[in-house]
What does this fold into?
Amino acid sequence: MWIRIVAVAALLAVIASAQDPSGGITAIGTFFNPRFAEENTDGYTVQLWKQGELVFGLLSVEALSGDGPVGTLTNIKFEERSGKLSFDAKLSTGMRLMANNSQQASRDLYRFRGAIAKDTLAGTMTHSDVLDTAAGETSVKIRLTRQPTGILPDSKTYAAWKSAADELLRLRGPKWQ
It folds into this structure.
């Protein structure tokens, strides 16, 4: 019984340290490919950080002009030893004309499955718009290179990162939940 209590306490300590908003974070990296690098593909920026076992980040899709939309990475799975990475992200990349002639922000869902190896993030990016199910999904192979800077500057704590990310998402984030 004593061993079980100690094991549960140790597990709770690990969970608490991974979710401690004042604890330090480490940048895994910023990975980028400009829109013009590959024909018929969007430009993507993926920025990843880690705090304990918690991995979090942002996806930006490059716009033709100006700052592109940004979304928080969700459902992140990262195996540090192998480099395998997968995540989802919700963005709003434009407006859609609805059947009643009104306009609504798109509901773009991006899914990435791939890996990080040295200075490269490579894999398959799948995109769909929840408002346009008839269009289906499109998948493209992407190869992003590590860059020195990203969408957000590196933060020292998760709380500082979250504050900066929330402000960025307020301006350029998805218009749907």
The chain has a mean pLDDT of 82. The CA atoms of residues 96 and 104 lie 5 Å apart.
